[in-house]
Design brief:
Layout: E1 2-6, H1 7-17, E2 32-38, E3 41-47, E4 51-58, E5 60-63, E6 65-70, H2 71-80, E7 85-91, E8 94-99, E9 102-107, E10 124-129, H3 130-140, E11 155-160, E12 164-170, E13 174-181, E14 190-194, H4 195-202, E15 210-215, E16 219-224, E17 227-232, E18 251-256, H5 257-268, E19 277-282, E20 287-294, E21 298-305, E22 307-310, E23 313-317, H6 319-326, E24 333-338, E25 345-349, E26 355-359
Antiparallel strand pairs: 1-5, 1-7, 2-3, 2-6, 3-4, 4-17, 7-8, 8-9, 10-15, 11-12, 11-14, 12-13, 13-26, 15-16, 16-17, 18-22, 18-24, 19-20, 19-23, 20-21, 24-25, 25-26
Helix pairs in contact: 1-2, 3-4, 5-6
Length: 365
């Protein structure tokens, strides 16, 4: 087996499949990348048995064949080679990687030990605008739980709506929802996908306008250009998150997004998990006083101008959660709604974006 390939194209393909390789498995072959050289292209594959990634890239193939090379080592080598054509020559149990005046000889793994790429029997499929999808996932996924004992909450929910798709995540303390608008052709579709995996999909280089999302009984597959990514679906019933979102409010405020997030960051320097940031919203003064009081550190406060509609209210929220939510809002203005000091607080993006970020309040001592 022998092929030559442009360095940047090879490195890009290796970076795409890198997340599929396992560094902790007891099976050494799962730490490798399987490379199949055929015709005028390479097929790169990795898997950790839960997720599998395949990427096809153009190459000059002199001799067709197949090999498995340790993924991280190969990526590190390619990354540090000169910007020139790379030649890989595989003979028996060794692969020689050469570029310009540099050469490496690596021990390969046994291709027959590498698992076959999963076949997905597609039951449902939907095509989604990639730029919208990518942006929404990056906004929402940070609200997913990292507690593996609550597997359902570690996922991101993808669900079609009459207008397009809702992308949802919650860890039970906060909830993020981003609604996409596009022609979904009435396709019924719902999948719960591991947050880390769907973030990897969202981080793919933008090579085309749309991405295909395909479902089988227990798998989800993303097809994007020359890349295919497959992962097991998370089993279980997702919480009825819509019940948390109130249809009305007693207080609604409007802030300049940049001014609010800057103020929260400043006041948050004195905040901790035990000392959240309090929003003291006053309709008469059209101001919100942000404040925190830490017995160990001290106090801080800042006045932020706002438009207020409704009742005066004091509500305390986790400052890091606030920053996570506000940093996902790209509109100039952000709205905040609540029904009272011990009811959830809801941040909504301004015109042109349909993003909602709900926080459970913190009880003040």
């Amino acid at each position: 087996m022998k092929f030559s390939i442009n360095k940047s194209e090879f490195l890009n393909a290796l970076n795409v499949v890198a997340k599929g390789a396992s560094s902790r498995s007891t099976l050494p072959v799962l730490a490798g990348v399987k490379i199949t050289a055929r015709s005028a292209s390479l097929v790169l594959e990795t898997t950790d048995l839960d997720r599998s990634i395949r990427c096809v890239v153009a190459a000059l193939v002199e001799d067709e064949g197949m090999c498995v090379i340790p993924q991280k080592l190969l990526s590190d080598i390619v990354k540090n080679l000169p910007d020139a054509a790379i030649t890989v020559d595989v003979d028996d149990s060794e692969a020689t990687v050469s570029c310009d005046k540099t050469s490496f000889t690596l021990h390969t793994l046994i291709p027959d030990d590498f698992p076959s790429f999963p076949e997905v029997n597609i039951d449902n499929q939907i095509t989604v605008p990639f730029k919208q999808f990518s942006s929404a996932v990056k906004k929402v996924a940070k609200a997913a739980s990292k507690d593996q004992s609550r597997a359902v909450l570690t996922g991101v929910l993808l669900r079609t709506t009459p207008e397009g798709m809702s992308i949802v995540a919650t860890d039970s303390y906060r909830l993020a929802v981003c609604n996409l608008k596009f022609d979904s052709a009435g396709e019924e579709f719902e999948a719960l996908v591991t947050s880390s995996f769907v973030l990897e999909v969202a981080s793919l280089p933008e090579v085309q306008e749309t991405i295909d999302i395909c479902l089988s009984a227990n798998q989800v597959m993303f097809r994007f250009g020359d890349t295919v990514m497959v992962n097991r679906r998370i089993e279980g019933k997702y919480p009825a998150y819509e019940k948390l979102i109130a249809g009305s409010y007693t207080t609604k405020t409007c802030y300049t997004t940049s001014a609010l997030i800057t103020a929260v960051k400043r006041v948050g320097l004195m905040s901790s998990a035990a000392s959240p940031i309090k929003f003291d919203i006053n309709e008469a003064t059209k101001n919100t006083v942000l404040s925190t009081n830490s017995q160990e550190i001290g106090t801080a406060s800042e006045v932020v101008s706002c438009e207020v509609n409704g009742e005066n209210v004091e509500i305390a929220l986790n400052h890091q959660y606030i920053i996570d939510g506000l940093s996902s809002i790209s509109t100039d203005h952000v709205f905040f709604e609540t029904q009272g000091s011990m009811k959830p607080g809801v941040f909504r993006s301004g015109e042109g974006e349909d993003f909602l970020y709900l926080l459970m309040p913190v009880r003040l001592a």
